[in-house]
Design a protein that fits this description.
The protein is an alpha/beta fold and 250 residues long. It has helices at residues 43-50, 78-84, 99-109, 116-129, 133-136, 149-161, 179-192, 205-211, 229-234, 239-245; strands at 3-14, 17-28, 32-36, 60-68, 71-72, 85-88, 167-171, 197-201, 214-219, 222-228. It has a single domain (3-245), classed as 3-Layer(aba) Sandwich (Rossmann fold). Strands 6-7-8-3-9-10 form a 6-stranded mixed sheet, with helices on both faces. It has a 4-stranded antiparallel sheet with strand order 2-1-4-5, covered by helices on one side. Helix 3 packs across helix 4 (116-129) and helix 4 (116-129) packs across helix 6.
Length: 250
């Protein structure tokens, strides 16, 4: 197994609040790492640090190192980092334009593509990989705002895929979706791990058990346990992990 991300002694602060405490964790290439834990355990702070989304927050500070392959992400250009590490949020945010233009926007903006035939191919591939193509192929010129919530979320996945990142961060991507839409997003994630490394933050432990290759349990800013998902959900090593998985707290 090859490590895609290596986190060394990461500490994150919001003013006087210590959100992540001496975190050491590696993420393996082409795995789905699910992160579970109660609210305020540092899960989202971890994702936002990997994508450097907190850099402009004047109350935020950090110590430690994070490497993407052999590159220290804190020394990288932010825009370059975000072409390598994409992030999907809990609420889908389609751009107020057509389905086609939602996908084509980023590749055109950063100069990846110019010919329409190339853009057409990227749009189709991204929508296929996000398991959305068959549902929208005949209405690519329609407004993305008119898609259902589940379709909008898969559109946002496709928008990330259009720039072919190496890592995709999912922050509660199914929290507002119905079971059928959730299933389609999960199917897309499982298919995508063949090409991408995925980190999924979820409050749904059943979802973690369904899609995670490994699972990390965070509690009050600390990594309590990390193991293969199948092992952790059968016999957690730490009682706090077992209590959370079985619903005794959290």
């Amino acid at each position: 197994m090859v490590d895609k991300i290596r986190v060394k002694n990461l500490n994150c602060f919001y003013g006087g609040k210590h959100a992540l405490k001496s975190l050491n964790i590696n993420v393996v290439k082409n795995e789905i790492l699910t992160i579970i834990g109660p609210s305020n355990s540092g899960k989202t702070s971890f994702l936002r640090t990997l994508n450097r989304m907190n850099d402009n927050n004047i109350n935020y500070s950090r110590k430690g190192e994070v490497f993407l392959d052999n590159d220290n992400i804190f020394k990288m250009n932010q825009e370059l980092l975000r072409t390598r590490v994409g992030m999907l949020f809990a609420m889908p945010i389609p751009l107020p334009m057509s389905i086609y233009e939602n996908i084509a926007y980023a590749p055109k903006r950063i100069g990846l593509l110019s010919k329409k035939s190339e853009i057409d191919a990227v749009v189709e591939k991204a929508l296929r990989d996000a398991s959305l193509w068959d549902e929208v192929k005949d209405r690519l010129d329609h407004s993305a705002i008119k898609l259902s919530g589940g379709q909008q979320q898969r559109l946002c996945i496709a928008r990330i895929l259009a720039i072919e990142p190496e890592v995709i961060l999912f922050d509660e991507p199914c929290s507002g979706l119905d079971p059928i839409s959730t299933s389609k997003v999960e199917e897309a994630m499982i298919k995508l791990k063949q090409k991408y490394t995925i980190i999924l933050v979820t409050n749904n432990v059943k979802q973690a058990s369904r899609v995670g290759d490994r699972t990390a349990f965070f509690l009050m800013g600390e990594l309590i346990e990390l193991d293969e998902t199948a092992k952790m959900f059968v016999s957690a090593k730490d009682k706090r992990t077992e209590d959370y998985i079985t619903g005794r707290f959290g």
